Amino acid sequence: MAEHTIKAFDDEIDRLRGLIAEMGGRAEAAIENAMLALQRQDTGLAAEVVAEDKRIDAIEAEVEKLVVEIIALRAPMANDLRDVIAALKIVGVVERIGDYAKNIAKRVPLIATNQRTLEPISLLPSMGQVAGEMVHDALNAFAARDADLAVAVIERDTVVDDFYNSVFRTLVTFMVENPKTISECAHLLFVAKNIERIGDHATNVAEMVYYAATGHTLPDRDRGTTQLED
Amino acid sequence: MAEHTIKAFDDEIDRLRGLIAEMGGRAEAAIENAMLALQRQDTGLAAEVVAEDKRIDAIEAEVEKLVVEIIALRAPMANDLRDVIAALKIVGVVERIGDYAKNIAKRVPLIATNQRTLEPISLLPSMGQVAGEMVHDALNAFAARDADLAVAVIERDTVVDDFYNSVFRTLVTFMVENPKTISECAHLLFVAKNIERIGDHATNVAEMVYYAATGHTLPDRDRGTTQLED
Q: Would you indicate the residue range of the signal peptide (chains A, B) (predicted)?
């Protein structure tokens, strides 16, 4: 490439990375606010999370447009091309993480309408925090191409999975003992599942980062037969 | 492009479309078999669905590799490039549809261990059939670039959503009346949610097809505030 073309390409890649970082920051905030809204039964905050998700979707669309432009105008070579395609995949995952946060927020009014304290809610904030940190670290690992940080994210996925299994059992027991709460607890089951899926998607990003940085996949990452990936 | 290059490009696009069609066929079969396994409490068939999902994932990886090759070797122009990128997005969606079918299959043993007849199971096969047909038609619409068929798919999404809401209410009522079935009904809730998500993803494919064929998005498709997209 001519020097000015390289400069333009680098600028575009910087813009791409900036958009991904912004999108990630918004997804993290969405998770945190959704969990806060759930805890405080704050339907106003929940509505904000739902509204903010449109911005995350808009950034994804912007990234897609930019990727097509970069490929069409710069015709990047093998490695650069793979990076650009990887960016496309990562924003797809972050968009889904944003959706999960939005889904949690959407369930808040369905749970908040009831004045009773739902004891099992108390389990969810810590689970949400671990998942949110995984998203944060996975995107930092992407920005810094840091394979070690990616591995740390991947290893934390079992924490979220264990949380989920514990929440599932607790909720089922609570429903048996408090049949009047069954409808709300069903919504909480989906909230827990959404958090578990956020952890899975952070793990997916981390796996992509690890592969891009090392050229290898991690062993023992076939979760296909043990886990429910809804 | 030189004539032999155009021929090679067309061959590659044909291979791409062939892979997507194969992937779609496998995803449809997975949905059908997962629902059959659930109805018949057939854990062997369920295990087959889980195992087969690896093939769907492998085809997705093959498509990704092919897309990178096509872009790198053929440097397709704007419209062709957008088509190739769209193919990448569509296989991502089909892969997720396969995952949902796998997740349904994975829950079969958790439900089948119990000898009791779970009445709400009877609601799910028709729901699964509508969702499966939506996937089938969405991929046909993609293959034929058929905007009308895409619209028909999109319109059917409310049928699946109505099914889901009905199943949710029926299951909650059943749990209240039969507290001993709560754990299995919780799994059925997730099965219903997975089917509902399959319908959503078929709709996503149809929306992409409609946009590619007409250059427009459909009005009234902002489901953002009414639906839970877990």
A: none
